Amino acid sequence: MHLMALILTLGLLWPVGPPPPVIVRGWQPPAGPYAAGHRGVDLAAPPGTTVLAPAAGTVTFAGPVGGRGVLTLTLPGTGTPPLRTTFSPVTPSVRAGTTVRAGTPIARVSPGAHCPESCLHWGLLRGDVYLNPLALTRRAPSRLLPTGG
Fold first, then answer.
1. Fewer beta carbons below 10 Å: N end or C end of the chain?
2. 3-29+38-136 architecture in CATH?
3. Closest among 2, 19, 31 to 136, alpha carbons compared
């Protein structure tokens, strides 16, 4: 299923907000599996901010990875393999195996050294391929404005 069709089907929410958070750092896909890049987006969020499930899904991981708290939410009905969305650094408030609805609190942002200021790193994968999680958000259409006076 194409990502745009999934957005309409899933009714995805921002994981922090409203309003939509400031994007501190955008997605920079790596050239290869071990190459440099940024495999997600960083959303401005102070420690303690509640992280919401952006869609209905099943928590498939909630625990530490490399000294940081991570939570993975697998989204059913999104193809094979299904889409997985990840969040770090967080303190999970639900356990692996928990099924949640969109908007359910799933974690809190933890202090971490991922960003100069506190942030939530939001990732998206299909299998082992990283995707841009912003493709899942609904954004206002762009408008071109006249350049002359």
1. C
2. Distorted Sandwich (2.70)
3. 2
